[in-house]
Structures are given as C-alpha cells and as structure tokens.
Design goal:
heterodimer, A: alpha+beta, twelve-stranded antiparallel β-barrel, 14 strands, globular, B: mainly beta, six-stranded mixed sheet, 9 helices, 33 strands, 33% strand
C-alpha cells in the first residue's frame, strides 16, 4: 500500500537521522585511540616527503580541506585530512596538575565556577493561538532547564475548547548534545484526550538545526501495547526585515497500527502545513497571524468522516509567540 | 518577561544609543530609585584622581541613570569610571579595598606585573574580598604607562567597576605632551548582565538587528543577479553561521560611554591651540570592540598596552576590551569629535576635544555594516578573495622551509637546519576535544598575517592601525629562542553560546603549566568567527610575526577570526594566573584557562 510505503520511508529517514550523528560521534572518539599510530605514520610520511619536490608538498597541503563544520559532508572530508590524524591531547600541557591539585592552588573546594557549570532555563511559547472559526485555542510550548549539553526538556501541545482541554500531548525528555547542532532526546510522552483513551509512550528523537537553518524535530514513539508512532516537525524563519518574520512550518505524523479509540489509523495519519507572519516588538514578544492547512489520510481520515468531522481544513489563526 | 525586558521594550531606542545628556552616577538621594528622576547633582565627565603610595578604595552600589531609567551600579568610591589612580614606577604601593557589597568582590590590576597573590582573581590568586572585609594589596611597580583596573568577580565590571591606572615613569617621560587625558571607553546595559547572558544562551542572535533579510537578498539579486546573491549566502547557510555576528551585544541593549559619559553627555577635553595632547585610550568595555578616530586629526600611536612603541601615525584604530593605546594629537581647529563606533556599527561613544566647553564638531555617520569575509571563516585559503592570493603566496612559496622546519616533531629529519623553534610552527594541530558539540568550526589553513585591520575596516580609505605596525620601543624584555612551543585553539559554538579553549570550557579544563623563567612560545589559533582579545595575567607577551620576529610587548592580544598568532613569554613570577578572552561573556562562558608557573 502506498501509505505504508510512505510511513516506512519516514521511519527509515527518522532512524537514519537518529543514527548518523551517533556514528559521527563514534568516528571522532576513535581518533583519540588512533592518535599514536597515526603520528608515527605521519613522521614516516614526512621523511618520504622530504625527498619530494617542494611544489608537490604544497599541493598536498593546499588540497586538504581547509574548514570543517561539525556535521554534514564537510566534516566527513576533514576526517580524511592529515590534520585530524594528528590531534592534540588538550591536557598535554597541564604537567599533571588540575584546577584543584598542584602548586599554588587555593585550598578547599574549587571556588571559581563559570557559566559552563551553571544551570539555565527557558520557556518558549512558539504557538499560542486562537482560531475563531472552530473556537479552538492551541498551545505549543517548549521549556528546558539544564546546562549547555544536558537538559530536561518539556514539550507540550494541546487544544482547548470552551475552557476544557480537548486533547494534549506532553513530552518529558532528557536532551543530550551529540554534535554541534544536534541533540538526542529520550523520555516519555503522555497523551490525553477528552474523547478517547490516554496513552503513554516511550519517546526517542533528535532535535536540532539542519543546514540552511531548518529547525528539525523528529521523534519516534512506542507504547507498552506495541503501538508505534512517528512525528516530524520542520520550521524555518524567513526574515523579511529585522522584525517582520515569516515562519513556514510543516508537521507530519504517522502510526504503526489503528487506534480507533483515538481516531488515528495506520500509516501516515495527518499533516499540517502553515505559515505565520510575526512582528517582533522585541525578540521575545511577537504577535502573529497565520494560515494552516491540515489534512488527514487513510484510516485516520475515515475515522474522522465516520465521526462526522471533516478530514481536511484550512484554519486562519492569530496568536502570540514569546519566550523568557 | 522581567521588568528590565519590559523597560527595554518601552524605551525609545534613541535613548539607548545616545543616552541622556546628564547620564551618570546620581548623587546620593533618599528616594534613590524613583525612576526617571534626575538629580541636579548628577556627576559628569572625568573620574576623581587618587595619588600617592597609599590608596583607599571602597566598593559599593550607586544609583545611575544613563537612559532615563535608574539602576544600581557597582562602583568604587561612588564613581563611574572608578577613580583614576596615578602612581610612580618603582614605588611600593598599598591599596586598601573595602567591600561594602552584600556579595564578594575583587580588583584585578590589569597588565601589572606583581606577585600572584596580589593579582585579584577570586578562586585562582586569592579568596576574593568578602562583604565587610578590607583586603590590602601591596606590590612594587616595575613598569610605567597606561593601565586600568577592574573587578574580576561575576559581572561587577560590566556594572561599573573599572578605572584607569596611570604609572609615571621613574626616569624622564619620553612622551612629551602639554595635556594628558584618560579616555576610558565602556558600555552600559540597563539589563541585569546575568539576564543578558541567559538570553544569549537561549537565542544567540537575540541582540543582532543587522541580520541578512529577504530585502537584502532582493537588493543583491537586482544588483548582481540571483545566482551571485545565492552564492553569497550559500556557505553561511550551509554552515549555519551568521555573517553579521560581529558582537553578541549591540546598541539594542548597550549604551556606549566615554569616561562614564553618554554620547549625548559629550565628554569634553579642553586644550589651547598649539598644544600637543596625549590621549590615553583604555577599552574598559565588557563586550565592545571600538573603532576610534578623530575626524580631521591624525593620531600618533606612542604606546600599546602601557608600553612605548615606535610612533606610528594613523587615522583610526580598533581595540578590544582590555587593550590600551596612547596617542598624541596636535589639533589646529577649535573642536574635534572623538568618535568610537562599536565594531558591529550599531552605536558609538563620543566626546569632544575643544578650546572651550560647550563646543562640538560634526559627528560622523556610523559606517555601513559589513559581512564577515571568507577569510574570516576559512583563513588564508579562501578562494575568489583578493586578499587570499597574497596570503597563499606568503604561506606557500616565499617561505618554503616553514612547512617542514617549523614542525616540532621533525627534529631528526631536519637536525642540520636551524632550531625549529626559531619559527612558529605552521602545522595546525586540532585538539581531540575540538570534535564534538562544543565547537562549530575548525580552521585548517589559518591566516598568519598581522596586517589585516579586520572586518569593517579593510577598505574604508583611512589609515588603520594593525598589529604589524607596532614595534616595542625598548626592544624585547627577554630575548632568546623559546625552548618550548604550545598551541591552543580558541573555540566556540555560537548556536549553543558556548566559548572555550580547545573545545573545553573552563570547568572541564586543566591548567597550562609553564616552567618558571623558561621561555615559551604560545600559538593561539582562532577557530571561531569572532575576534577575541586574549589577556594573559602576570607576564608580558612578546607578539611575533610568522617568521618568529618579535614585534611588540602586550598584555592583551586580539586574535582575529581564522587567524593564527604566536607570542613568546617568560614567566618571571611563580603562582597561578588567569588567561582568558576579555569579552566578559566569552570568559564567563568558559574561554578561560588557568596557568600554573612553577
């Protein structure tokens, strides 16, 4: 079936996205152990190189890649470069001393702690909006607390209709930096629904910044009954001026099997494509207007139709984006 | 949002950029925090001067108002800048510092050679000065020139704790002048600095209002075609780097000050016609590089970091936090503007040299914002860049020995050559810790030229000072070929707002061990796209060129993006010392190492 193929592909892409940074991290850690060997090799190479013409040596030098990002193709190039095989030990100059041991050290526990050892926190209401047609308010917030590389992240999204929470999805995750722009996230997701059944999932995902500044959030879910789900969210920020910003956004979700209670069907279940235009009175405070097209697919669409709902709609929204 | 965030939202931007005419420390008032109210006793202009070999300083809080909002500043003896201390070379001085704050404080004597216990870095050289305590600094002055002092605790420096330290030469002053002014540049924010830092941590470009926009793209496309416009952006977007990330903070939160005075306040230095004026420029800003010029007046640079240099005449110079330059000027007209625009071109500090109070000269427009160039990202090997061809030639062809002879590992092969340490090594060696989440860029072919004034100053038609123009007048303190070479990289991840050496923030680092009195070469390679003013405490650094020739003695050396510089030092004083980027937030984020001399 076509939809099955789509969801399989989506899962495969998601899994690859998950794994590739991990592989990269492994490659790097490998360098440490290979260091000694490679240095010896390099020495020998240089002896040989001494007999080569100077021009050739220069060519060798200049043909090396000169700059590397930490992920993406450039990085892979660098891994093959001679420089990388000749890595330094960052503690080689310490003479064995540490910040708390050695001559002239201040007694007692280490006093000087800089921001790298501090805990920071943030709350972002990415979408906080109202659709007057359906009288639905939507919230989509993300909060974190932690250090530069390890954080507790809470992502919460839900619909409120006439003061009651219709449905919600909350992810509570441990987020760990694995490369320059990517964090892996693992934790739990809790779904609640006014009509339907609550579900608890194990959540695994990656979140980060792809080349060309696409913000990507991919997560896979599995629950105790063997249900699986996948969610992919992409956002982009197009600066029209310094304060007027157009934010296209796409979200697709899929499920491994039918869940009639909650009105979701196997395969690609729903998609949402929207654009929001916001004005940043300050970087932290920006009202917006937007339009979003949502669509359900396959069994999900059938469930919706049989419940007397539409399987696709266009929503005009007004909202507020703010963070602190 | 916090109160200060709301305040910033409401304040007209002009107030931030230019400040209030009477901005500054408010005289002690009973209703200290009545916002917007200005005391008639508001103090303007130059700091009080303290002299003699016994000095008493009291650290406390004072209300200030630079933008229309009253805030509490951290002050010394109640003034911003702190008192100018004038001492004499060779004297034994005693400085008593009393802490009237509710938190610990410290004073670091920037660029002064002294025993490490007197250096004033809490947690490294001493325990800090507890609330209510008086700490006595005692040291003998072994140098003369223009220096400064500031707090090394938290963000106290950013909130007002900085002052000039002038040391008269024991022998005759070689720099002759009729007037002598300290011109201390700084920056002020109404926000809580910790809040500023936390905002950068959440969104690194939060203060950048010069970002590439769709309108810029359309302009480029109509001028040079869509293909070129795309090409111009391709690399940046691929790398997820911002070509206008020139300063983390901008005039959207900073007000730039000259001698504690806002541009609207117009600090004025008086002179009589025919006089020769010495201006002692001190960059005491927490986060701002300044490009300084006096339109219509050539400046003769005579000192760098307190040390006499061979005079060099320039129109403009750039300096970062921690650096000082003394210049001589001989004005002919009645009034000149001393113009110091911030490197990111969002604002300026300004003052006037005039024959009488109240005069002013035209204030130039801010220069246009320029994007970082390929050489700021790739070093010497950027293609399609005019400067690159030259750099290439310099690296490859004119110095063929460099790639081999300079390599520290190659002793056996090239033993017949001169000592390999005679020249700084050109072989880039990244640290294993540079591969990971803490680093967003690594440069494999850095540029080594020191004659680049840096982004925004490259082709402006003015004669701009560069590091290659500087020569110590008194030669080099310690001569001889270094016995050892160490290489460290300046690293960061702008997206996570993390800064480090070798990809390791301070908390994960170990000290750099230097042997007492052993001459050592330090190579700093900048693997980031920002310029870092690197300040090494406790010893002089003899900056050298790429041939290993010593140029100038410094205590703070700015390292440009994708640049590799070498300096040689001999640690004469035992102990533990700090070594860090003098951009306060970079230091606090972890671009900080400890140095052990034993």
């Amino acid at each position: 079936m076509k939809i099955e193929q789509i969801i399989k592909t989506a899962f495969a892409v998601g899994a690859l996205t998950l794994i590739s940074p991990l592989l990269q991290a492994q490659e790097h850690s490998g360098h440490g152990t290979m260091n000694q060997e490679k240095v010896t090799e390099e020495k020998m190479d240089h002896k040989k190189m001494g007999h080569e013409s100077e021009l050739e040596t220069e060519m060798l030098e200049t043909s090396k890649p000169h700059l590397s990002g930490n992920s993406g193709s450039m990085d892979n190039d660098t891994n093959m470069g001679a420089n990388v095989s000749d890595l330094r030990d960052p503690h080689a100059y310490s003479g064995g001393y540490t910040l708390t041991e050695g001559p002239y050290v201040q007694s007692g526990p280490r006093q000087l702690k800089l921001a790298d050892e501090h805990v920071f926190k943030s709350f972002l209401a990415n979408r906080f909006e109202y659709d007057s047609d359906s009288e639905i308010s939507l919230y989509d917030v993300q909060a974190w607390v932690g250090t530069t590389y390890d954080r507790l992240v809470v992502k919460a999204e839900g619909d409120i209709n006439k003061g009651t929470l219709k449905e919600s999805q909350t992810d509570i995750l441990w987020s760990h930096a694995i490369s320059t722009f990517w964090d892996t996230q693992i934790g739990v997701r809790v779904d609640s629904a006014e009509e339907g059944e609550s579900r608890q999932w194990l959540a695994v995902g990656v979140q980060g910044l792809a080349p060309y500044w696409f913000e990507l959030d991919v997560a896979g879910y599995v629950d105790v009954d063997g249900r699986t789900a996948l969610a992919v969210e992409v956002e982009y920020e197009l600066m029209l001026t310094q304060r007027l910003i157009l934010q296209p956004r796409a979200e697709i979700t899929g499920y491994g099997k039918d869940d009639e209670f909650n009105g979701v069907g196997q395969g690609l279940s729903s998609s949402a494509f929207g654009v929001r235009l916001r004005y940043e009175f300050s970087r932290q405070f920006a009202p917006y207007v937007g339009v979003e097209r949502t669509k359900m697919f396959g069994n999900t669409a059938d469930f919706a139709r049989s419940a007397g709902e539409t399987s696709s709609e266009t929503r005009y929204v007004a909202g507020l984006r703010f963070w602190f | 949002m916090s109160d200060s965030d709301m305040t910033n939202l409401m304040l007209p931007r002009r107030r931030f950029v230019k400040g209030l005419a009477l901005g500054g420390v408010l005289a002690t008032m009973p209703s200290v925090l009545r916002a917007g109210q200005l005391s008639p006793h508001t103090r303007l202009g130059s700091a009080p001067v303290l002299q003699g070999s016994e000095i008493n300083l009291v650290v406390g809080q004072s209300p200030v108002n630079f933008t229309g909002v009253t805030r509490l500043a951290t002050t010394i003896n109640g003034s911003i800048p702190a008192p100018t201390i004038r001492l004499r070379e060779g004297d034994d001085v005693t400085i008593r510092v009393t802490n009237r704050l509710s938190v610990p404080t410290s004073i670091h004597w920037h660029g002064i050679i002294l025993p490490f216990q007197m250096d004033g870095v809490p947690g490294i050289s001493f325990r800090g000065i507890a609330p209510g305590e008086t700490f006595v600094y005692r040291f003998t002055l072994q140098q003369s020139g223009t220096y400064w002092y500031h707090s090394h605790s938290g963000f106290q420096e950013m909130t007002g704790m900085y002052g000039a330290l002038i040391i008269e030469p024991r022998e005759k002053e070689v720099i002759q002048s009729d007037q002598d002014y300290v011109v201390q540049l700084s920056d002020w924010t109404d926000e809580d600095p910790m809040r500023v830092f936390s905002k950068l941590k959440i969104q690194g470009d939060v203060y950048n209002f010069n970002q590439p926009t769709v309108i810029d793209f359309l302009r480029d496309a109509s001028n040079g075609g869509i293909k070129d416009a795309m090409q111009k952006r391709r690399m940046w977007n691929q790398m997820r780097m911002n070509p206008t990330d020139l300063a983390d903070l901008s005039a959207s939160t900073l007000t730039y000050l000259m001698n504690g005075t806002t541009p609207a306040g117009n600090w004025t230095g008086l002179f009589k016609k025919g006089e020769r004026i010495r201006l002692r420029f001190i960059n005491a800003a927490s986060n701002s590089f300044y490009d300084v010029r006096i339109p219509g007046l050539a400046m003769t640079v005579v000192q760098a970091d307190g040390q006499n240099v061979e005079p060099v005449s320039v129109d403009e110079f750039r300096f970062g936090p921690g650096e000082t330059y003394d210049v001589l000027v001989e004005p002919k007209d009645d009034a000149y503007t001393v113009f110091a625009q911030s490197m990111d071109r969002t604002g300026y500090a300004r003052g006037t040299l005039a024959t009488e109070r109240g005069l002013s000269a035209e204030i130039p427009d801010l220069d246009p914002v320029e994007w970082l160039e390929m050489k700021d990202m790739m070093g010497s090997m950027s293609h399609g860049d005019d400067g690159a061809a030259m750099d290439h030639a310099a690296m490859g062809h004119s110095m063929p020995g460099m790639n081999h002879g300079g390599m520290a590992m190659d002793h056996s092969v090239h033993s017949t050559h001169q000592n390999p340490l005679a020249m700084p090594s050109q072989t880039v060696r990244h640290a294993s810790t540079e591969f990971g989440p803490s680093v967003d860029m690594r440069v494999d072919m850095p540029r080594t030229s020191l004659d680049d004034p840096g982004v925004g100053l490259r082709n402006n038609g003015r004669r701009v000072l560069t590091l290659s123009d500087l020569r110590s007048r008194d030669g080099i303190l310690d001569s001889g070929i270094p016995e050892r070479e160490i290489e460290l990289h300046l690293t960061g991840n702008m997206e996570r707002y993390s800064w480090s050496f070798d990809g390791l923030e301070f908390g994960k680092s170990t000290p750099v061990h230097l042997k007492h009195r052993q001459r050592v070469r330090v190579i700093l390679q900048n693997d980031t796209m920002m310029t870092h003013p690197m300040h090494l405490h406790g010893m002089w650094s003899d900056l050298e060129n790429d041939k290993g020739e010593p140029l100038v003695r410094r205590h703070t050396i700015p390292v440009q993006p994708a640049q590799r510089i070498g300096f040689v030092t001999t640690p004469h004083d035992l102990g533990r010392w700090a070594w860090h980027c003098h951009l306060l937030f970079h230091m606090d984020a972890g671009m900080f190492r400890e140095v052990v001399v034993s």
